[in-house]
Design a protein that fits this description.
The protein is of the alpha/beta class. The chain has two domains: 5-143 and 186-326, CofD-like domains (Rossmann fold, 3-Layer(aba) Sandwich); 149-181, no CATH class. It contains 13 helices and 14 strands. The protein has helices at 12-27, 56-66, 83-90, 102-116, 121-129, 164-170, 194-200, 211-220, 224-230, 251-257, 264-271, 293-298, 313-326, and strands at 5-9, 37-41, 47-49, 52-54, 137-140, 149-154, 158-163, 177-181, 203-206, 235-238, 241-242, 245-246, 282-286, 302-306. Strands 5-2-1-9-10-13-14 form a seven-stranded parallel sheet, sandwiched between helices. The protein has a three-stranded antiparallel sheet with strand order 7-6-8. Helix 1 runs parallel beside helix 2 (56-66), helix 1 (12-27) packs across helix 13 and helix 7 runs parallel beside helix 9. The chain is globular, with a radius of gyration of 19 Å. Guanosine-5'-diphosphate (GDP) binds next to helix 1 and helix 2. It is an enzyme of class 2 (transferase).
Length: 329
């Protein structure tokens, strides 16, 4: 069987998982995986900076699939330089704590140019995808601008709001968050093709991405949650928590802010079971969290434990295969 797989994903965790999905399809002899693998990418991290439109999660996944990402640093392009960034800083433009590589800026300029000419984010991404053999179809979650805003409890200045990227990069998530919002998302629609891909899928996989600021905005786009609840495809989630801890990043701070425990059980409960009001049928937990299985099954999900460290595409492909096995495809 050549399954059609849809993955919901954020940036770095998402891209490792998507590389695994492409590899899992290749193991099944599916070379033209663009027809079989659709990735719905979080655009809550997007922002306007220095006059250009940045799409951090979209770019992380695009660069990873193209094989041009900087794996050591974890973001941006391999062998990049920062000459333009230094010049922008000299002009006092942009954020001093937020570095934009020269090659990366080339992407942002191209994207911004196309947007200014009237292309939609979906159209821009389609155009960008023609440059490399990505082996996946990438769709933004929505064409609307719904950038994530964090309300923090600033010890010096009291409650105030800032763009998610400022909180994450400048403050390293140290200012206590009170809430995460995507202004305007109530009026947003899924990007063209998103609801259709979910409806026509044989399996929908929720990548081990940040549940609050990567998967949260995707599920908050009106129409995506209902598409997940209605599809005949099994929906399988992969835990971003291993041994009760986030693997990297600061997702635990985000989970704490919305009152969810940093555990495989906590995140499963946040997504919920399709038998109730949620979106999941099955939940893959780390072998370190095998004790969670009983509780996860009690909320109406089938659960299995597997090694969930995505150290390379081979391991990630094993994880995707385990998720597909749970979906029986
Ligand atoms: P971001 O948008 O770049 O922050 O990346 P994502 O939201 O896609 O992924 C971040 C999440 O990935 C973190 O919460 C981590 O817990 C999770 N993560 C990162 N590496 C791994 C891994 O090797 N295995 C698992 N299971 N989760 C991981
Ligand atoms: Ca992100």
């Amino acid at each position: 069987m050549t399954p059609r797989i849809v993955v919901l994903a954020g940036g770095v965790g998402g891209s490792k998982f998507v590389l695994g999905a492409r590899e899992a399809l290749r193991r099944r002899g599916i070379a033209a995986s663009t027809d079989h693998l659709t990735v719905v990418v979080n655009t809550g991290d997007d922002l306007w900076l220095s006059g250009v439109r940045l799409q951090p999660d979209v770019d992380s996944i695009t660069y990873a699939l193209a094989g041009v990402n900087d794996t050591a640093r974890g973001w941006g392009r391999q062998d990049d330089s920062e000459r333009v960034n230094a010049e922008l800083q000299a002009w006092g433009v942009g954020w001093p704590w937020f570095t934009l590589g020269d090659l990366d800026l080339g992407t942002h300029l191209a994207r911004t140019g196309w947007l200014r000419e009237g292309a939609t984010p979906t159209g821009v991404l389609e155009r960008m995808a023609t440059r490399w053999d990505l082996g996946a179809r990438l769709l933004p979650m929505t064409d609307a601008e719904v950038d994530t805003v964090v309300t923090v409890d600033d010890p010096d200045r009291g409650p105030r709001s800032m763009h998610f990227q400022e909180w994450w990069t400048r403050h390293r998530a140290t200012l206590p968050p009170l809430a995460f919002d995507n202004p305007g998302i109530e009026a947003a629609a899924p990007a063209p093709g998103v609801a259709e891909a979910i409806a026509e899928a044989d399996a929908v996989l929720i990548a081990p991405s940040n549940p609050v600021v990567s998967i949260g905005p995707i599920l908050a786009v009106p129409g995506i949650r209902s598409a997940l609840r209605q599809t005949s495809a099994p929906v399988v989630g992969v835990s971003p928590i291993i041994g009760g801890r986030v693997v990297r990043g600061m997702a635990d701070v985000c989970l704490g802010a919305i009152g969810v425990e940093t555990s495989a059980v906590g995140v499963a409960g946040l997504y919920g079971s399709r038998r109730d009001e949620g979106v999941l049928d099955a939940w893959l937990v780390a072998e370190e969290d095998v004790d969670a299985i009983e509780t996860v099954e009690a909320i109406g999900l089938t659960a299995h434990a597997r090694p969930l460290w995505m150290t390379d595409p081979t391991r990630s492909a094993d994880i995707v295969e385990a998720a597909l096995a749970q979906a029986r495809v």
